[in-house]
Amino acid sequence: xxxxxxxxxxxxxxxxxxxxxxxxxxxxxxxxxxxxxxxxxxxxxxxxxxxxxxxxxxxxxxxxxxxxxxxxxxxxxxxxxxxxxxxxxxxxxxxxxxxxxxxxxxxxxxxxxxxxxxxxxxxxxxxxxxxxxxxxxxxxxxxxxx
Length: 146
What we know:
Elements: E1 2-7, H1 12-24, E2 28-31, H2 42-55, E3 60-65, H3 69-76, E4 83-85, H4 89-99, E5 103-107, H5 113-124, H6 132-142
Parallel strand pairs: 1-2, 1-3, 3-5, 4-5
Helix pairs in contact: 1-5, 2-3, 4-5
């Protein structure tokens, strides 16, 4: 599986921790930046990762900024993206199982590395349940064409 990753300066260190873990698990990682801790604008990087997921170049995406809020908003502006801001394991599992999210956002200033790795792995290893959730996701995605 190919996973897009991106961050701004506020998420740079956590992005690198997550990328290292993804590679260790055998995932192919595409890093859309940023590549250092110099101040930058999160939409420039999060949008690149989201477009890669929306186009099918990557199957899933992980974005990080200081809080996770800015990158999650950015990703959700791209048609076809369902990005959840998650800072706990239960929500990571639920958003995959019920919302079939294709991207996840986290905040480096909000959670530690250990919890972030638990969240990432819970999200990656939880399958979408389908069933009653299909109709809800169809309604959600239909809002993009209004």
